[in-house]
Amino acid sequence: MIIKWSEYVTSAVSPEGYPNSDLPEIAVVGRSNVGKSSIINFLLNRKNLARVGEIPGKTRQINFFNAENKLMLVDLPGYGYARVSKTEKERWRKTIESYLLGRTQLRLIIMVLDIRHKPTEDDKLMYNWICTMGKPHIVLANKSDKISRAYLSGNINQIRETLDIVPGVPVIAVSSKKRTGWNETWDCISEMIPGLIKI
């Protein structure tokens, strides 16, 4: 699968700012330090299309990216970052909820985790909410290059057990840095969005 063209479309904090598009959308969610923006770049074969910040919690808006005029990747604000006010956290929560609950173009949710660490309570809450919504979803266990291959299977099992992920939901070890897991991820995306033309 080859992606030759992608572009940043817009950023928004409310439905009024969402792009007027009928393209299917894939939302990327995760804690503020798991590398969501790096995953966007990884999936789109770009280095710096989605800005990667040194400071966790830098993504405060919903960012939309067009891939081959076939679909949109949507980068949502990270959750669980401690160094922000309660007011700011509540604003982020409303921004995320408004999109996930109200966007009819949303077809798939990608939850990004750090494979090195056991999922947090915030991760559990987010995953339970995704399941309650009933949306198709996959889990990407990022930063797989940071651990020995001998630990990959055990860490994936820990993620599955902690979040109580059913067998049919893919959990894929990826590395946005080393670009491993790209084909497997896009194969899953193509299977989980019926009618999506392979890019």
Strand and helix map with partners:
Elements lengths: L5 E7 L12 E6 L5 H8 L18 E6 L3 E5 L10 H17 L3 E9 L6 H13 L3 E6 L6 H15 L7 E3 L8 H11 L7
Parallel strand pairs: 2-4, 2-5, 5-6, 6-7
Antiparallel strand pairs: 1-3, 3-4
Describe the structure.
With 199 residues, the chain is an alpha/beta fold. It has a single domain, classed as P-loop containing nucleotide triphosphate hydrolases (Rossmann fold, 3-Layer(aba) Sandwich), CATH 3.40.50. The protein contains five helices and seven strands, in the order E-E-H-E-E-H-E-H-E-H-E-H. The chain has helices at residues 36-43, 86-102, 121-133, 149-163, 182-192; strands at 6-12, 25-30, 62-67, 71-75, 106-114, 137-142, 171-173. A seven-stranded mixed beta sheet has the order 1-3-4-2-5-6-7, with helices on both faces. Strand 3 and strand 4 form a beta hairpin. The radius of gyration is 16 Å and the shape is globular. The protein starts with 5 loop residues before the first strand and ends in a 7-residue tail after the last helix. The model is unreliable at 53-57 (pLDDT under 50).
Figure out the total of helices: 5
Distance between the termini: 6 Å
Radius of gyration: 16 Å
The low-confidence parts are 53-57
Q: Mean of the pLDDT scores?
A: 89
Instruction: Tell how many strands the DSSP assignment holds.
Output: 7
Which CATH top level class fits? Answer: Alpha Beta
The SSE string, one letter per element, is EEHEEHEHEHEH
CATH topology: Rossmann fold
**How many strands, what sense, and barrel or not for the largest sheet?**
7 strands, mixed
Whole-number total of structural domains? 1
